[in-house]
């Protein structure tokens, strides 16, 4: 099987079940943005594989799980509204994120002001993943009336919170410096 098919050379792509849509269709934008976020999470994870710190294994397992679920979220977004999704996001997936956020947050210094995305390279990559996830959420909101599973928007919202706390957690674990927002500019 070849990687290139030439079927998209005229600006069309296929959704799940084969429906052809323009590559700039909102649905394609939404699942493509999930793919971008997923890639940034993968980059952050690859940067962490070289580091040594307690809890790294569990952290990387969490990132891999999130990547897997995010891939499925993209598949849900790529499924036309009149078709059944092969894998469906559940409320428990959102609850998993919330549980992990709460667990990590217990170990972090409370925020007293805004921070700038910075610190360890992996933390910075997680901040980029967070902002890309926010964009995916905004795009999914534009599809909300066509989504068979309304939990997609909630998951993306919570995932961005998860990635923010994950970035802070990595900075703390690896002595990355969180830069406070300078209000005297």
Structure overview:
This protein is mainly α and 185 residues long. 56% of the residues lie in helices and 5% in strands. The chain has helices at residues 26-48, 56-77, 91-105, 121-141, 151-173; strands at residues 12-14, 20-22, 115-116, 179-180. The strands form two sheets. Strands 1-2 form a two-stranded antiparallel ribbon. It has a two-stranded antiparallel sheet with strand order 3-4. Helix 1 packs antiparallel against helix 4. The longest helix has 23 residues, at 26-48. The mean pLDDT is 94.
List keywords for this structure.
4 strands, 185 residues, 5 helices, two-stranded antiparallel sheet, mainly alpha, 5% strand
Low-confidence stretches: none
Query: How would you classify the helix and strand content by structural class?
Result: mainly alpha
Instruction: Specify the number of helices.
Output: 5
Shape: elongated
Separation of the first and last Cα atoms:
56 Å
Helical residue percent? 55-70%
Would you report the number of β strands?
4
How many whole angstroms does the radius of gyration measure? Answer: 18 Å
Most strands sheet = 2 strands, antiparallel
Helix-strand topology string: EEHHHEHHE
Average pLDDT level:
94
Strand content: 5-15%
Tell me the strand order in the biggest sheet: 1-2
């Amino acid at each position: 099987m070849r990687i290139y098919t030439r079927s998209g050379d005229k600006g069309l792509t296929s959704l799940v079940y084969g429906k052809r849509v323009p590559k700039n269709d909102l649905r394609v934008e939404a699942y493509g943005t999930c793919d971008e976020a997923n890639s940034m999470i993968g980059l952050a994870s690859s940067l962490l594989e070289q580091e040594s710190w307690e809890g790294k294994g569990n952290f990387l397992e969490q990132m891999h799980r999130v990547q897997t679920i995010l891939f499925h979220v993209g598949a849900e977004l790529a499924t036309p509204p009149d078709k059944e999704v092969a894998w469906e996001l559940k409320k428990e997936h959102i609850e998993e994120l919330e549980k992990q956020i709460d667990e990590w947050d217990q170990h972090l210094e409370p925020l007293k002001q805004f921070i700038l995305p910075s610190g360890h390279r992996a933390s910075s990559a997680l901040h980029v993943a967070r902002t890309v996830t926010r964009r995916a959420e905004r795009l999914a909101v534009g599809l909300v009336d066509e989504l068979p599973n309304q939990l997609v928007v909630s998951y993306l919202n919570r995932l961005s919170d998860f990635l923010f706390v994950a970035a802070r957690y990595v900075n703390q674990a690896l002595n990355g410096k969180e830069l406070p927002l300078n209000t005297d500019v």
